[in-house]
Hints:
alpha/beta; Rossmann fold; N-(1-d-carboxylethyl)-l-norvaline Dehydrogenase, domain 2; eight-stranded mixed β-sheet; 19 helices; elongated
Amino acid sequence: MKISIVGTGYVGLVTAACFSELGIDVTCVDSDLQKINRLVYGAIPIYEPELENLMTHNVNDKRLHFSTDFNKGFENVDYVFCTVDPIPDADGATDLEPVLRIAQVFGQRIDRYCTFVIKTTVPVGTAHKVQEIIQHEIDERGVDVKFDIASNPDFLTEGNAVKDFMKPDRIVIGVETESARESMAKLYRTILLHSNRRVIYTDTRTAEMIKYAATSMLATRVSFMNEIANLCELVGADINIVRHGVGTDSRIGPKYIFPGCGYGGTLFPQDIKDLVKIADTHQFDMSVLKAVDEVNKRQKRIPFNKVSRFFDGDLKDKTVAIWGLSFKPGTDDLSGAPSIVTIDMLLEAGAHVRVYDPVAMNATKLRWADLYCGIDMYDAVKGADALVMLTEWHQFYIPDWKRVKSLMRTPFVVDGRNIYDKQELEAAGFAYSCIGK
């Protein structure tokens, strides 16, 4: 069995590494020569636990290959996976042009039966557009080559992607023909044999909608709980106890109801924008999702607002330390991270900013050339008037508070993820502020 994966972004690399680990011959195809050359020599452009070892192992065993040659990439393959990173259009929704261009190239080069699998998150109805484009290109060539289309959305979470792929909660497969169903069942047979998981077969439009609905539901839970947390602060309630009381309800459950300073990444914001735009094209108002997005934007400003209030709105020449820059633990991705909003607002207010993150320092230096990047978490707090914790990396959970206080100029902590104990910090001489208390 041979697979070509078009696109060497987050989803493409994880998919390629995991399929090759299952013994399948996989070729990653990308038009970016520089990126392909780096991959050939083992330079992985993203941080994801287990991924580098997995890729190195399978490259050495000659099951995982990289190429810029689309002719070679589509030659004698059984599956072509489209995993190109979505490009936002002028409204912020997904631009389909890269996906449709790959479909066109596929139709121009396919020489035997193959299944074209769309793994990129795409608007509902994209699979049908892709099928029409491929068939048009085949007809233009005057050849009789059969192919199938499948929609196979990813449900990978950054920081846990390899496990998500190898032991998924579910595998969603959208197909329109029995031959496509059989083809995809054969591909995922190994994963299903080794895990007691569900595979959900449906049509392509429903598969595309499942991805959007799942992402939007999770984002809604996060924003709803953040709204409750903000109200708790105003009425004197404790959000941590509220969350526990809500999460123990079997109809709701404990996941994705932790209050904080907003969600980030590309997945939630992009999928919400896409779904709202899809609804708009059908003259339907997704008012709940629009509110979810607005609540999240507002939530990201809260850490700055707390620091500003503590210093009566005057942050000029104040020094603020930040622990955690990536949008979540387990990744170096800054996309949509609360740290971006916090740092930009602090700098605009005239504050000096010192930062530390276990893995996202390179990305941080590329975005803000003049920030002070600490060599460790304690170096970052030297001389600080405030410490803001934004990403709950494990190493931040139990710091040496005595040491932290001795290094800071003003012992004030803003806990953007509610991981610290208020009484403990106040007993240690800190002023403390969190979300929802």
